[in-house]
Amino acid sequence: MTPSGNGALAGGAVKNNVKRLGRLDIEGGGQVVVHGGHAFIGHMEPPHGTTIVDVSNPAQPRIVARITLPDMHSHSHKVRVMGDLMIVNSEQFNRHHLRKGGEIPAVTQRLERELGRAPSDEDIAGALGVTPAELPELREAGARGYPDGGFKIYDISDVTNPRLIRFQKTHGVGVHRFDCDERYAYISTEKEGFHGNILAVYDLKNPEKPDEVGNWWMPGQHLAGGDTPHWNGYRNRLHHTMRLNDRIFASCWHAGFSVIDASDLTNLKTLAVHNYHPPVRDPTHTILPVPHKIGGRELALVIDEEHEHVQGQAHAFMWVFDVGDLDNIHPLSSFYVGENESPWSRSGGRFGAHQFQEHMSGNLVYVAWFSGGLRIVDISDPFLPREVGSFIPEPGKGQSVPQSNDVDVDGRGLIYLLDRLNGLDILEMEG
């Protein structure tokens, strides 16, 4: 289907200055990366692992390879490609819920002391914030543990037949999001002796034997070093990092973001911290340093991730920060999408920001906005970001609402919009 004009399409999509070239009915994904005429998709739910799609003809995307996971305990929802190497994460599926299984023994002992008797399942479930019916699953997960956290490296010199060359184990619930360059992988993972995800930098010179060369964490995370977290649960943790030259920009969930000196990867040092929580409720998902100055300013884009929306509060949005002076980091502007921009903004899914294309060249930012679809934002005036195009796909197969999760743009300028529930759209700006 090749639409023309703006507004609603026959299939239910809503667009402005963007046309659809092709669509692939595919299981929901967490990340899409386009490299060498192929789209690499990391899927949200097992047993679906990674799918490789030939997009040389965008009107007819064609699956050329699939990696299926061996069980239902992990997911590989993130993917990166560097030359003939593909890296995917291995993280416990449904980790926030299932890790409560490991807390049951300690919770049981605490309740015994407090109650002066053996606690009931109702007592234990209440302390964990779950229902009694969920306890058998949690006890099973606690007894099983999770030994498969880490990342996998594949040889994709034959893209139709990915060959696993290394499964690098890390710790805990494993690896969440990450970034890579020609030599190093910047991994967000749990690590023994620490609370929550930290940064682990791996040298991939020999991909069959990655070398962990450096770590970075926030004060309060290093339990083995005597730290005590000053926050509840896992609210403060590394989500992931992006590197520009000798600086690494780290998004730290409810701890805002940090800027790290990466001139020596074996001795990473914090240069600056900027935390705007509170009053902002939604966590810091990604910080992207803009690789060129705009208006003479060094900028960074920050996206917050929409979670459970509280009526009366702002939906998650995108920031533009001036980071030229690390002693005076400050916002210049923000970009919002109103609920009336999407017919699905109150249809049961998440509405609000999630993620943008992580490697930009010009002044356009491509943002995945959950049920707000794709928003294309021009930041040529960093004080007034301006939307220049949008595309909201219809709900995917078997779904009631679109949930645009990730976006990438290839060398042809084609846009790949991935839904976390179902579907990949291949788009192009009309202007």
Topology of this structure?
Elements: E1 7-8, E2 14-16, E3 18-27, E4 29-35, E5 38-43, E6 48-54, E7 62-68, E8 74-75, E9 79-82, E10 85-92, H1 95-98, H2 104-115, H3 121-128, H4 135-144, E11 150-155, E12 163-169, E13 175-180, E14 184-189, E15 198-203, E16 211-216, E17 236-244, E18 247-253, E19 257-261, E20 269-274, E21 284-289, E22 299-304, E23 318-322, E24 330-335, E25 351-356, E26 364-370, E27 374-378, E28 386-392, E29 404-409, E30 415-419, E31 422-429
Antiparallel strand pairs: 1-2, 2-28, 3-31, 4-5, 5-6, 6-7, 8-10, 9-10, 10-11, 11-12, 13-14, 14-15, 15-16, 17-18, 18-19, 19-20, 21-22, 22-23, 23-24, 25-26, 26-27, 27-28, 29-30, 30-31
Helix pairs in contact: 2-3
